[in-house]
Amino acid sequence: MTELKLRLLFEGAMLGPGKADLLERIRDSGSISAAGRAMGMSYKRAWSLVEEMNATWRVPLVASARGGPGGGGAQLTEAGHEVLRLYRAVLDRAAAAAAPELAALERMLGPAGEDMSGGK
Fold first, then answer.
1. pLDDT (tens digit, 9 = 90+) per residue, 15-28?
2. Is 60 exceeded by the pLDDT of residue 120?
3. Mean per-residue pLDDT for 46-69?
4. Which residue range is the domain that position 68 belongs to?
5. Distance of CA 79 to the CA centre of its chain
6. Are 33 and 46 in contact (CB under 8 A)?
7. CA torsion sign, 49 to 52 to 53 to 54?
8. In this prediction, what percent of the chain has a pLDDT beyond 90?
9. CA 85 to CA 93: how far, in whole Å?
10. Residue 49, CB-side half-sphere exposure with 13 Å CA sphere
11. Is residue 57 a part of any domain in this protein?
């Protein structure tokens, strides 16, 4: 299956599949650490990415509460939900627009490991 991945490069900011997946997992789990674990990244790395996103956008994308007796947690802010929605919409539109070319590229692929050049 062909998968289209996009990295959006803004002036001084970047949003790509990793950050979008992290936002999605925070939304679903309510936890930065659980989201990071699900992606195979350390808690420190997940927190670093959240801090980077919160500093990059006009308003924070993730709101978090410290742990303790009641437990901590994290959730996407309204802006976080909207950034994630817009990123996924861009990805869907790009995939739809590129579908004929992606299908043509898929048809040109050979079996894994087969030398398609005709050489020995």
1. 999 999 999 999 99
2. no
3. 90
4. 17-102
5. 16
6. yes
7. positive
8. 79
9. 12
10. 21
11. yes
